[in-house]
Amino acid sequence: MRIPIAALIGLILTAFYFLMAIFAPLLAPYGMAEVVGGVWEPSSDAHLLGTDNIGRDLLSRMIYGGRTTIFIATAATILSFTTGSVLGFIAAVLGGWADQVLSRFVDLLMSIPTLIFALVVLSVMPVTVPVLILVMGLLDSTRVYRLARAVAVDIEVMDFVEAARLRGEGYRWIIFREILPNALSPLVAEMGLRFIFMVLFVSTLSFLGLGVQPPQADWGGIVKENADGIVYGIGAALYPAVAIATLAISVNLVADWVLNRTTSLKGGRG
Amino acid sequence: MSDLLEMKNLRIGATVYPPGEKPHDIEIVKGVSFSLEKGQVLGLIGESGAGKSTIGLASMGFGRGGVEITGGEVWINGRDILKGGMRGLRALRGAEVTYVAQSAAAAFNPARKLMEQVTEAALQHGRCTKSEAEARAVRLFDKLGLPDPETFGNRFPHQVSGGQLQRAMTAMALCPQPDLVVFDEPTTALDVTTQIDVLAAIKDAIRDTGVAALYITHDLAVVAQVSDHIMVLRHGEKVEYGTAEQIINAPQEDYTRALVTVRQIDHPEKAPAEPVLTAKNITARYSGTRYDVLKDVSIDLAPGHTLAVVGESGSGKSTLARVITGLLPPSEGQIDFAGRTLSPALAGRSREDLRELQMIYQMADVAMNPRQTVGTIIGRPLEFYFGMKGRKLRDRVAELLDKIEMADGFIDRYPAELSGGQKQRVCIARALAADPKLIICDEVTSALDPLVADGILKLLLDLQKKENVAYLFITHDLATVRAIADSIAVMYQGKVVRYGPKSEVLAPPFDDYTDLLLSSVPEMKLGWLEEVLAHRKMESAGH
């Protein structure tokens, strides 16, 4: 198996960010909320990326922030995929009323812009990490639901599913043994893209002040804290922006590659 | 040079990407040479993968996606078209050489009228003016026996029948007055009763216009009706070449002989017995429609017997299968099976009902989950119905594989790694695994090559003898019916028009529809087409 160069770059960068997130306490030179210098110091040997708006080490903030951002995005993606795809498959297999009720409810949720919906919900709920994950995951699962249902409806009419029905198989076997293995490749590819949306989503929320609460670091929050510095020519806010952009691109490269590989493969369904 | 088309040592290759292996190059056509004179028809025949379509397209200098002409020469009208470059090919295609595809329904643009499409190539190449081309198209429509030739071209593709569309496509190919027409399985997708008209129309048109033709098909009986010469191909190589007469009456090679004698299985009819399945007065319609697809259908079937349900597409034969399996509850009627009355809907049937009534599908490709191994596919009914596990399960799967004449090494393979015939065999094993009393076979051989289909039919008969299982055999192919049936139900427009033991149904006096159906099945002899048409003309004159 040859990995194309673009996918390889994507894989390396993605792995880099994930390893950084996992081993954050070992890698970070200073504590996350430790004030170690002056305000917006330029980069030096002691502080590779300089310091932030209240004198914390920016590199340490970036590493811990990456950990929070990636953790929330991953957890929310997993939540949105499990709920979305299971409900989507159920709607496709059951059809009729169950499908109508689920689909119309999802349409209803999707008719409200996700960000505004999230802001409304978060403004009345206590903003903690579990609540954040729950809100993001459930709101995003509507998109996954639509994809999973569309894919499953196509598979559901195949003769092998009919054969399983004629055998008397229950819904559980049909969903998890007949449909899921054949729907997996488009879902996995979509998962990469949705993960990126999650990263952007949590960063946006934090930037607006309704996401991760200080002193906890996250990339969106770091942009917010240091946004004022741009006026004085201090680029501290640009580091998290670059991190978000490179993570987005590299995960996309990997997702593209997965999608290409699985849809062009002879024998397997796309 | 008097030859219109001459292929010298043609070689065609492609790159394949087998799952789990490195991509590599294979040769699809391995050095084929032949020539074709003006006004002659050469039949190319062979099973799928023989390279017949690839050779047909190569005569236009074209290789389908990923296929490349790697060697040899193709001479048309005294020039080597492979050396002419793209510009030369463009002048050739649609002018000197034209093409008739298998599925006319997919080959026409649904958004444009037939006349525009039929005359397009002639106009594109500046072969004549618009009015000339249209006049020629009308003449061709008339010659091909299309209704209202003057106004036929004003219709859209969806407004004409499949057989008419195939004839319109022939008109499209003939309109630029080409020297050579490539027919790629032009009647394969049609019902037998339609096929005969299209075949006659094509044959007349070829004779009247004096073009040369390559006629590609897998059905030797069909090609024998239209060709002067026949070339038998296998695995990209020439097996035998000769006049149509020689190939049909005195084949030299074993492979050709096998093709000529295909479907001559001798199957004596069994004595009548108490039925295991009785369907009484079934009437059914699909939900949301107001049209009965089945009208008062009654059939019965004895244990270990085969009932063939015959009819053209749209006759309701597959719907009958759906009703019996419970997928489509009938609006009226009752189904008795193995001494009990079956619930009309699938949900109301017991596990025992489901186990004893199995089904085999037409397209083995989509009837198996591509992500399950052969072992899982065959093993699941054993696990599901009999609770088998582990060693016992694996042994039973191996035993079933043995019954379908496959080695137990196949147990860990995926469907994509099997040939078409093997896939259908695995589907048979899956049905057998449930130890059923009745298997519904829905066109199980129609997607297969004749020799492979033959093997499947023999296997089914053999298994029937050993397991005493009854078959409800749905097919449009009367040769298959002769080979396998004990009794026959002929269906037409949702009704059973003729029903009884094989010997009675296939013996005169016939009703009109059965007569039409029977006489439309191509026979493996020269001049059959003319005989049938002459016979029909006489009959209609007599009325």
UniProtKB/TrEMBL annotation, chain A:
<keyword id="KW-0472">Membrane</keyword>
<comment type="similarity">
    <text>Belongs to the binding-protein-dependent transport system permease family.</text>
</comment>
<dbReference type="Pfam" id="PF00528">
    <property type="entry name" value="BPD_transp_1"/>
</dbReference>
<keyword id="KW-0813">Transport</keyword>
<dbReference type="GO" id="GO:0055085">
    <property type="term" value="P:transmembrane transport"/>
</dbReference>
<feature type="transmembrane region" description="Helical">
    <location>
        <begin position="6"/>
        <end position="28"/>
    </location>
</feature>
<feature type="transmembrane region" description="Helical">
    <location>
        <begin position="191"/>
        <end position="210"/>
    </location>
</feature>
<dbReference type="InterPro" id="IPR035906">
    <property type="entry name" value="MetI-like_sf"/>
</dbReference>
<keyword id="KW-1133">Transmembrane helix</keyword>
<feature type="domain" description="ABC transmembrane type-1">
    <location>
        <begin position="66"/>
        <end position="255"/>
    </location>
</feature>
<dbReference type="InterPro" id="IPR050366">
    <property type="entry name" value="BP-dependent_transpt_permease"/>
</dbReference>
<dbReference type="InterPro" id="IPR000515">
    <property type="entry name" value="MetI-like"/>
</dbReference>
<feature type="transmembrane region" description="Helical">
    <location>
        <begin position="230"/>
        <end position="259"/>
    </location>
</feature>
<protein>
    <submittedName>
        <fullName>ABC transporter permease</fullName>
    </submittedName>
</protein>
<feature type="transmembrane region" description="Helical">
    <location>
        <begin position="70"/>
        <end position="95"/>
    </location>
</feature>
<keyword id="KW-1003">Cell membrane</keyword>
<dbReference type="GO" id="GO:0005886">
    <property type="term" value="C:plasma membrane"/>
</dbReference>
<keyword id="KW-0812">Transmembrane</keyword>
<feature type="transmembrane region" description="Helical">
    <location>
        <begin position="115"/>
        <end position="139"/>
    </location>
</feature>
TrEMBL record, chain B:
<dbReference type="InterPro" id="IPR017871">
    <property type="entry name" value="ABC_transporter-like_CS"/>
</dbReference>
<dbReference type="GO" id="GO:0055085">
    <property type="term" value="P:transmembrane transport"/>
</dbReference>
<protein>
    <submittedName>
        <fullName>ABC transporter</fullName>
    </submittedName>
</protein>
<dbReference type="InterPro" id="IPR003439">
    <property type="entry name" value="ABC_transporter-like_ATP-bd"/>
</dbReference>
<dbReference type="GO" id="GO:0005886">
    <property type="term" value="C:plasma membrane"/>
</dbReference>
<dbReference type="GO" id="GO:0016887">
    <property type="term" value="F:ATP hydrolysis activity"/>
</dbReference>
<dbReference type="Pfam" id="PF08352">
    <property type="entry name" value="oligo_HPY"/>
</dbReference>
<dbReference type="InterPro" id="IPR050319">
    <property type="entry name" value="ABC_transp_ATP-bind"/>
</dbReference>
<dbReference type="InterPro" id="IPR013563">
    <property type="entry name" value="Oligopep_ABC_C"/>
</dbReference>
<dbReference type="Pfam" id="PF00005">
    <property type="entry name" value="ABC_tran"/>
</dbReference>
<keyword id="KW-0813">Transport</keyword>
<dbReference type="InterPro" id="IPR003593">
    <property type="entry name" value="AAA+_ATPase"/>
</dbReference>
<dbReference type="GO" id="GO:0015833">
    <property type="term" value="P:peptide transport"/>
</dbReference>
<dbReference type="InterPro" id="IPR027417">
    <property type="entry name" value="P-loop_NTPase"/>
</dbReference>
<feature type="domain" description="ABC transporter">
    <location>
        <begin position="5"/>
        <end position="260"/>
    </location>
</feature>
<dbReference type="GO" id="GO:0005524">
    <property type="term" value="F:ATP binding"/>
</dbReference>
<comment type="similarity">
    <text>Belongs to the ABC transporter superfamily.</text>
</comment>
<keyword id="KW-0067">ATP-binding</keyword>
<feature type="domain" description="ABC transporter">
    <location>
        <begin position="277"/>
        <end position="518"/>
    </location>
</feature>
<keyword id="KW-0547">Nucleotide-binding</keyword>
